[in-house]
Design a protein that fits this description.
Blueprint: E1 16-22, E2 28-35, E3 46-48, H1 55-63, H2 69-75, E4 89-91, H3 95-102
Antiparallel strand pairs: 1-2, 3-4
Length: 108
Amino acid sequence: MYATVKLKKWKDWGAKRIEVTTDENGKVTGTVQGDRPTTGKEVPKTVKSGFGATLQQVVRTQLGNPDNLFAIAALNKIAVPALLTYGQLIKLKDESLAEKVQNGGRMT
């Protein structure tokens, strides 16, 4: 049996801190302490890939989602995002592009 599902909204996940306690009877309970902030993270200019990492994993880990995967692949001239070598340096920001945008596209 197959069904077509149309999603109305994409909701990004949020990290939570859970405190796990065990009472004297051995019953284990977990309580949510509050949302952990996922905003305000400083994105590094470059990052090195780990053993067996793909570009999608690196981008998701550093940026929170893989929306910029193909832009970052193009920036780094990576043809196959699934093939990274161990310790490969990946640029996550293009400073020259940011400078051009700030100057209205004019070369200084």
